[in-house]
Structure formats: C-alpha cells, structure tokens
From TrEMBL:
This is GNAT family N-acetyltransferase. Residues 84-213 form the N-acetyltransferase domain. It holds the Pfam family Acetyltransf_1. CDD domains: NAT_SF. It comes from the Bacteria.
Length: 213
C-alpha cells in the first residue's frame, strides 16, 4: 500500500470526505483537522491524527459543545476515558483502504443501476423492479486516492449482491478518474462486505459526540 502511516490515510480520508459531503475545506491543526460540516446535528468535526492521551484530553476539553464531533483513530475504550463523561461514542468504525482493481459488473435481474457525477462526486443508485430504493453509494476521487462514502442497502434487498455491485461500480469509476487507492470509514454493517472485496483495516475510527451531563 502507498501509505506510510495512519496519519497519511487520515489525510486522504478527510480530504475526500469533504468533497463527498460538500463540507468546508479542512483546516489544519497541530493535532489534525477541523472541518465545518454545517448540519443541525453536526456543525463541526475535529479529526485527530494524534492518538495520545494528552492530546485527546486537551482537544476534547477545548472544543466541547453541542453538535461538535471528534474523530479519533485509537482504542475506543481508551478514547472514551480520555475524552471524559460529556462525550459519548457513536457506532463502531474502522479506517480502511484498498488498491483499486477494475471489475466487470452484472446487475441482478429486475434491478436497474444508475450513475451520475456532480461536483466531482460519482454516485451509484440501484432501484428495485418497482422503482423503489434498493442500494446506493458514492465516491469522491481526489487525485491518487478516492473516498468511498455512504454505502447503503435497503434491508429487504440485502444478500442479493447489490452491495458488491455498487462498490465495484465505484471502484471502476474512481479508476476512470485517475485514482488508484480507495479509502473509507467502515461501519459494522459494511465491514464484512469491504473485507470480502479486499479492503484492509488500518485503525479503529472512534466517533464521539458531545453530550453534556
């Protein structure tokens, strides 16, 4: 893999994620990045490339406010202890990457795959035979790397190969845009799929939100 450290992967993930979500440009900090997201429940996120106790405690104390999130790449139990009782952990996550490879795609019978590009982000949508939502995902190529984001399959359409379909579609699209390496923040629902496609886990991705006692 082309990354020499977790910090390099975090850098690639942050810069692709802001393109994918239409967030503000990342502001470099001594300990990582600050990103303005501009959502009601997520105004700002602070992404730490540092993973030591002193830094996590310092940043958590300095930025504590409603709608503020922290992203830390370290053991979840330790991070929660360091951050303090006013912070709560969201669902588990993992920082993952892969070398992109072109793969032929086949759409299951009855389903329809649609893709489009807007603002540098390629989106893939699969609709069911009745026209309803079945699966989706998007990818933001940013040079050599591309961030895969918001992968989702409707519960009633799982185990039909739709997750693999949208992932392969986005892998191919990222390669078309010049990317060679994929990066993502995996969730419990998606981790098994990503690993089956050759994605490698580099570090836990701990998401903390401020919740005053």
């Amino acid at each position: 893999m082309p990354f020499r450290s977790t910090t390099e992967i975090v850098h690639a993930w942050v810069h692709g994620w802001v393109v994918s979500r239409g967030a503000a440009d990342p502001v470099p900090r001594p300990w990582g990045f600050t990103v303005d997201v501009g959502q009601v429940k997520s105004a700002t996120r602070h992404v730490l490339t540092a993973d030591d106790e002193a830094t996590v405690r310092k940043v958590a104390a300095e930025v504590a406010a409603p709608t503020v999130w922290l992203k830390v790449f370290a053991d979840p139990d330790r991070v929660l202890e360091w951050a303090g009782p006013e912070w709560a952990v969201d669902e588990p996550g993992w920082l993952m990457s892969t070398e992109l490879r072109r793969t032929p795609t086949t759409v299951p019978a009855g389903y329809t795959l649609r893709t489009w590009t807007r603002g540098g982000v390629v989106r893939a949508l699969v609709v069911a035979p009745d026209g309803s939502f079945a699966a989706r995902a998007q990818v933001a190529p940013t040079g050599h790397t591309a961030v895969v984001d918001q992968v989702e399959t409707a519960p009633e359409h799982r185990r039909k190969g739709l997750g693999r379909l949208v992932m392969h579609t986005l892998h191919n699209a990222a390669l078309d845009h010049g990317a060679r390496v994929g990066v993502l923040g995996g969730t419990p629902d998606g981790r098994a799929l990503y690993e089956s496609l050759g994605w490698r886990t580099h570090a836990p991705l701990v998401s903390l939100y401020h919740r005053p006692a």
